[in-house]
Structure of DNA helicase RecQ:
Amino acid sequence: MTSPTDQRTDDALGVLRRVFGYDTFRDNQREIIDQVVGGGDALVLMPTGGGKSLCYQIPALVRDGVAVVVSPLIALMQDQVDALTTLGVRAGFLNSTQDFEARRLVESAFVAGDLDLLYLAPEALRTESVLRLLDRGKIALFAIDEAHCVAQWGHDFRPDYLALSMLHERWPAVPRIALTATATPATHAEIAARLNLGNARHFVASFDRPNIQYRIVPKREPKKQLLDLLRTEHPGDAGIVYCLSRASVDKTAEFLVQNGIPALPYHAGLDSGTRAANQHRFLREDGLVMVATIAFGMGIDKPDVRFVAHLDLPKSIEGYYQETGRAGRDGLPSTAWLAYGLSDVVQQRKMIDSSDGDRARRQVLAAHLDAMLALCETVQCRREQLLGYFGQQSTGCGNCDTCLTPPESWDGTVAAQKLLSTVLRLHRERDQKFGAGQSIDILLGRRTDKVAQYRHDTLSVFGIGTELTESEWRGVVRQLLAQGLLAVEGDYGTLSLTESSGDVLGKRREVTMRREAPRAAASRTSKPR
Ligand code: ADP
Ligand code: ZN
């Protein structure tokens, strides 16, 4: 048995072995730890599962004083502290869920130096009483987890993070380590600027997760498509299925159970006891499928998640990367599967248009959605596109759907012109805007009630698009959206032209389109690299 005093005089490798039970450091963990132990600042970009926690937990044990860890994941603080306590590390947390007595105990332990790590929510650092408490103890370092939350242009901005820039002013001698699993080059720079990390060393690990096979398919009958995937490729495997709404989480979980797949729901609408129980079972039992909103997953460490399936389009590439990153932490082959359709785009545009926040904020959200769409519609390697988004280079991976079954492309210039001129005519000649469905009905020459009501059969474009099927036209609309040649807006998902649409209509620009993959999607035919 070692006492905490021994641990403090120990070196980093000794702590890794004795406290955490691992033999060697991974990648650049050692350099990061040395930097912080030596009193320097660090900015760490490392994918989920890369081993960020040890980068501050080990310095916390090696350096004198208590490490203060800022984390937005209040729900997980108890778990994190429990996990450390099991290892014999003295950890505590302060947050709003605690009663007075529990708080007081942690506070006095902190002041007495009887803690190795103290977890705090960012909002706590805005209260004067907490700041004064910190003044009364000895701080070994500040760790700022989920540091991308400070970025206003990022996908997960939390205003409380902005206040963290004062840590440096108030405690200039205390080293700081900021960590995140997702950052574009712009977000990376913003984190450094906003947290005053001008002198920090930057550590950027590769974001590639070679064992994850990325696949994105058109949404037809999503629940059935999911069931096919699970039955044919992942029988008995543990996995996560993400849905946008609580209602669809419940329905999907029920559907899977009815079809003999052990599934559990997880969303913020369930009471906390049920949520905790479901999470516990998912972590402990084999082969369970968790159907969840994105409320589930942050900080969850289950190594053998074999698939992550999205039944709805994620709001950003960062979100997609983080969620799919929960698959295959053990390095074994895993699947990231996403089904998406035009209705996703319409729904998300609607959410953006009706979201609070100013125009600039809505533009950020729209840019995130556009990037996600471009990933869905790309004819290139998904991994290349994904890593490129994070500023990292790669070449055709051989382990994504577009590499395994290269999509055929076709010259969609004429189709694009037909669709865009339908939108243009509705607008110019009738001063009307409609959703994609109406334009497609017009192109296909369908005499629906709505066509009759608005006399759209008298438009010159009526019936000029019968060479494509309805689902092909939907593909055309999606790809025009992804290429910025068409926009969708408002409550009804109405289509409108963009600045670039004129180039297509004026025959100054050709449009290459991706032919929709045949029904049988790519299967796992190649070994991961
Ligand atoms: P992150 O916070 O980057 O998502 P974690 O810190 O939770 O990742 O680490 C992911 C998993 O890898 C954990 O189970 C952790 O114990 C393990 N791990 C981290 N570093 C090492 C190491 N050097 N050797 C073996 N396992 C490690
Ligand atoms: Zn690829």
Notes: The first helix runs from residue 4 to 9.
